[in-house]
Design a protein that fits this description.
By secondary structure, this protein is of the alpha+beta class. The protein contains twelve helices and 28 strands. The protein starts with a helix and ends with a strand.
């Protein structure tokens, strides 16, 4: 009996010590990482993990979720008249981008976006707003505002839009290079039009190239084109679904690690893998689009392949990792790498001291640079390691800044204009006009019956006498503004009037 009393006393003392120690640990870590709790919810009910310093810390996503959801918006894109079908959208995006199946009439699609600046700049995916006539943003407090597309980059499937609001909650970028496989992450977005959805998972892999962004330069004279897409995705198992496109991938402190872009799924819904553009790429593209209106991308001008055992054996390589220089394509005279002394058959193993283990790693690193930037490439040539300095160029083969000559709204019209010969004006008995010399796949071709050869005489009842005047009128327009275009054809002198939105 005496022994039983001793054991009971020891058990009670052990429980008390455990409770006191737990409470002390919670209070200490609560002050260190500033975990927020509602109505004094006990932190002792959360799970614990060990950080890099060996400290026990609470694994709690509530504070992060509350912070992040305020900065993630719902985006609705509207094409007023669509002749496209869902089947024309790449398979990788078709289900991930929440899009109805209508083939005719207005088409509404939805996705997500992340506020990155208190003055209303929002980053999203290019395929969320591509070819949209109207972009509508719903904030976390249910306010609905119209957005303007500032710039897009099909090569990374990123876009920047802006709303006229101030003092908005926003997310700060963190260094995605420092993220690690196995690290906890949260995905935040609006899947299936369910606003402010948060899911948790880990980083499953980094540097994934899944060949879903189909941008590039078309081939000429029977030669294959050059693929210009930059893919080095962060792969995660945090659940994402249709409508998450353009949403945030964040670390457990709410820092922006990436923009969710695609899923790998046989059904179109979550099945274990999602892919996000890393924040270091997003940050660079964002700064370029806001500052220059166009992406300033450093360009090596080489064709590369991943090194593997088969390639190494085939080419007598002494390394099994890196980016193999397969050639220079049809841009050899503009290639920065060739001008610096890089040769076909070289294997790039490092850039600026950073390991390059794959072609996607090289493309990602160089894609963060601008024309004129200098890098040091470590290459393996015939078993010997060489360091070669390279000055990056743009795609035109120079080191100058690439400028966007017109607003994206003008480019989205998809036409080329030229001044009309005075003899033609005199024969048609009109005082001025500009001729539509060519049409591409833009709004004019999609939403009007204007054909090549149409001579524009008025835009919004303002007489047009030169291409410069036409562009000056259109530059004052904002996305979604309605414009009217009046004019004639040389062979059909009666007046035609068309209307569409910018």
């Amino acid at each position: 009996m005496k022994r039983f009393g001793t054991l009971l006393l020891a058990a009670v003392l052990g429980s008390v010590i455990t409770l006191v120690a737990t409470q002390w640990l919670v209070n200490d870590q609560q002050s260190a990482i500033k975990i927020e709790h509602i109505d004094g919810t006990p932190a002792s009910q959360v799970a614990y993990t060990v950080n890099e310093l060996g400290q026990v810390v609470p694994l709690d996503f509530t504070g992060t979720a509350e912070k992040v959801t305020k900065a993630v918006v719902h985006i609705r894109s509207i094409q007023e008249k669509s002749k496209q079908s869902n089947q024309q959208i790449p398979d990788a995006f078709r289900f991930f981008f929440d899009e109805p199946m209508e083939k005719q009439g207005p088409r509404q699609s939805s996705g997500s976006g992340v506020i990155i600046n208190k003055d209303g700049y929002i980053v999203t995916n290019n395929h969320v707003v591509d070819e949209a006539d109207i972009v509508q943003v719903t904030l976390s407090d249910n306010r609905e505002v119209k957005a303007e597309v500032i710039g897009t980059d099909p090569d990374t499937d990123l876009a920047i839009i802006k709303i006229n609001e101030k003092d908005l909650p926003y997310l700060s970028f963190v260094n995605s290079d420092e993220s690690k496989v196995g690290q906890w992450v949260l995905a935040v977005g609006n899947p299936f039009n369910l606003n402010s959805t948060v899911t948790a998972g880990i980083i499953s892999a980094k540097g994934r190239d899944i060949n879903i962004i189909n941008s590039g330069n078309p081939g000429v004279n029977g030669k294959a084109g050059t693929r210009t897409a930059i893919e080095s995705f962060i792969q995660t198992d945090a659940a994402i679904n249709p409508g998450n496109s353009g949403g945030a991938l964040v670390d457990i402190n709410g820092g922006l690690l990436g923009i969710n872009t695609a899923i790998a799924s046989p059904t179109g819904s979550y099945s274990g893998y999602g892919f996000a553009v890393p924040s270091n790429i997003v940050s660079k593209i964002t700064e370029d689009l806001i500052s220059f209106g166009a992406v300033q991308r450093g360009w090596l001008g080489i064709e590369i392949r991943n090194v593997n055992s088969d390639l190494a054996k085939e080419n007598d390589l002494t390394v099994n990792e890196g980016a193999f220089v397969a050639g220079f394509g049809d841009v050899g005279d503009k290639s920065a790498a060739k001008a610096a002394g890089i040769k076909e058959g070289d294997v790039v193993t490092k850039i600026d001291g950073h390991d390059i283990k794959s072609s996607s790693a090289l493309i990602e690193y160089v894609g963060r640079k601008r024309p004129g930037d200098k890098i040091e490439m470590t290459i393996n040539r015939d078993g010997k390691s060489l360091v070669i300095p390279v000055t990056l160029k743009n795609r035109q083969g120079s080191t100058t800044t690439v400028k966007r000559e017109e607003k994206p709204e003008l480019a989205s019209l998809g036409w080329e204009l030229e001044d009309v010969d005075t003899k033609v004006l005199k024969r048609l008995e009109i005082t001025g006009g500009v001729k539509v010399s060519a049409l591409t796949n833009g709004k004019i071709k999609r939403y009007t019956d204007i054909r090549e050869g149409f001579i524009i005489t008025f835009i919004d009842d303002i007489a047009v006498k030169s291409v410069k005047e036409a562009n000056e009128i259109l530059k004052k327009k904002k996305a979604g503004d309605l414009i009217t275009i009046a004019g004639v054809y040389e062979d059909y002198p009666r007046e035609y009037i068309f209307a569409l939105r910018m």
